[in-house]
Each structure stands twice: as C-alpha cells, then as structure tokens.
Design a protein that fits this description.
alpha+beta; 4-stranded mixed beta sheet; 3 helices; 31% helix
C-alpha cells in the first residue's frame, strides 16, 4: 500500500476508535476540495441522548447551488446515526449565508436556541 492509503486507514481508525467521536467530511470536485464539514458526537452530562454537533461547515460559493450541500448534510446525519446519535445540531453564525436557516428548516431541522457570545477582556 502507498503512503496515502496508509494515512487514510490511520485516520479512519482514529475516527472510529476515538471516545470523543469526531468526523471531518471533505467534498471534492475533480480531486479539488470545495467544502468541509467538521463535527463531533457526545452525550451531555444530564442527558441519555447522544448528540452530534456540527462545528464547522464551509462550501465554496460556486458549489452552494444544487445538491452538494444537502449531500454533505446527509453524510453527516448518516455518520451521526452510525455512532449512535439521536440528535444532530447545526450552527449558524451571523457571518453565515443568510439562507442557511431556510435550508435547515427545509431539511427538517428546527430552531431550538440562539447563542450569544461575549468577548472577555
């Protein structure tokens, strides 16, 4: 096996074996990365449900039309089910594309809370 396939095998092994359970999805067009979705799964202290949390999702602007974004969401949700999650979480930043909430709602996600941040001095 070549060095690249060994690295991929090691990455897959780490992702499956990790108690923190995380995933990095990369979307390619002609071997060029055009998007990524990073997430982790955990069970909150006061809950018996395991949750998957999307912490970074980026797709090049020219690839935001069509199904590529939906396919990334579907892959993330499939992974979440495979690692035992009953809930997935998506984030939206004020700097995110304005249509993201519509996409989430169209695919069955519901707004559950808003988060405010304060920079500490």
């Amino acid at each position: 096996p070549d060095e690249g396939s060994c690295a991929v095998a090691k990455l897959e092994e780490a992702l499956i074996a990790s108690p923190a359970q995380q995933i990095v999805l990369i979307s390619h067009v002609d071997d060029v990365p055009v998007g990524t979705l990073v997430a982790y799964a955990f069970e909150p202290v006061f809950s018996s449900e395991k949750i998957a949390v999307e912490v970074l999702w980026y797709l090049d602007e020219e690839h935001r039309k069509g199904r590529r974004g939906i396919e990334m969401m579907e892959a993330y949700e499939y992974w979440a089910k495979m690692v035992g999650c009953s809930v997935v979480q998506y984030g939206w930043l004020v700097s995110s594309p304005v249509n993201m909430p519509k996409l989430y709602e169209r695919t069955g996600a519901e707004l559950s809370e808003q988060v405010y941040y304060k920079r500490l001095k």
